[in-house]
Amino acid sequence: VLCSFCRWEKNGQVSRELWEKAGQQGLLGVAIAEKHGGIGADILSSAIVWEEQMYVNCTGPGFSLHSDIVMPYIANYGSEEQIKHFIPQMITGKCIGAIAMTEPGAGSDLQGIRTYAKKDGSDWILNGSKVFITNGWMSDVVIVVAVTDREARSPAHGISLFLVENGTKGFIKGRKLNKIGLKAQDTAELFFEDVRLPASALLGKENKGFYYLMAELPQERLIIADMALASCEFMFEETRNYVKQRKAFGKTIAHLQ
Question: Which listed residue (220, 233, 237, 238) is catalytic?
């Protein structure tokens, strides 16, 4: 990992090989139940994985989003067929997951999204765009948040989730976005132009997507906070080691404090 990190930062993404090796090492889906093909541990065990990433400043691989944000949606709300189709492949790292919430005009205000899925017989026709999607460029399956009832009594009552696979006609990946940090973590724009989805692509119940988001987002925020704390610990240790070695005025910088 460390010997490849500079190359990944330059390329704006990690390698597929890394994902599959992570799967072989049992680093993906740690907290997913064994009955679904996961490791069967808990979120604290998952925390060890993402904290160790931060302790070596390896911010590129989007393992935590894949394992502890995307997979729980499928495991908790997916049909038996969806779970069997996606989870085992995601555990191996052969299927990379992402979730598409943010839009050019809607970030924290999820009720303001404009991406729309309209029923056409038993199918859905999806149109819209998403931005700042982690794992977006490398993703094989994306959970897309879309409006499904424009006449609902509130926006929260008319939002659904859909599983959109890479290669689906009309699903277009835009550019990888340049960022101030996390340069090896692929972040992309996604576009949906008359994407026809079967009824089986609906994740959970129709118009219940906002409820699912509110149930899962607290864990996502916890993950972000814990990773930030681990990164701070890494920076502190690096700084402490540096000031013990760097000399000025005949002493180490640490001794000048």
Answer: 220
Q: Which DSSP category does 187 fall into? A: E
Of 65, 39, 71, 40, whose CA–CA distance to 53 is shortest? 65
220 assigned to some structural domain? no
Range of the domain at 25: 2-211
- Which residue from 117, 146, 142 is spatially nearest to 209, judged by alpha carbons? 146
- Give, for all 257 residues of the chain, the pLDDT tens digit: 778 888 999 999 999 999 999 999 999 999 999 998 888 999 999 999 999 989 988 888 999 999 999 999 999 999 999 999 999 999 999 999 999 999 999 988 999 999 999 999 999 999 999 999 999 999 999 999 999 999 999 999 999 999 999 999 999 999 999 899 889 999 999 999 999 999 999 999 999 999 999 999 999 999 999 999 999 999 999 999 999 999 999 999 999 88
Do residues 40 and 33 make contact, with C-beta atoms less than 8 angstroms apart? yes
- pTM for the model stands at 0.92
Q: Would you call 237 a catalytic residue per the annotation?
A: no
CATH number of 79's domain: 2.40.110.10
DSSP secondary-structure letter at 103? Answer: B
C-alpha 205/C-alpha 121 separation (Å) is 17
Residue 109 lies in a domain: yes
The 3-state DSSP class for residue 26 equals coil
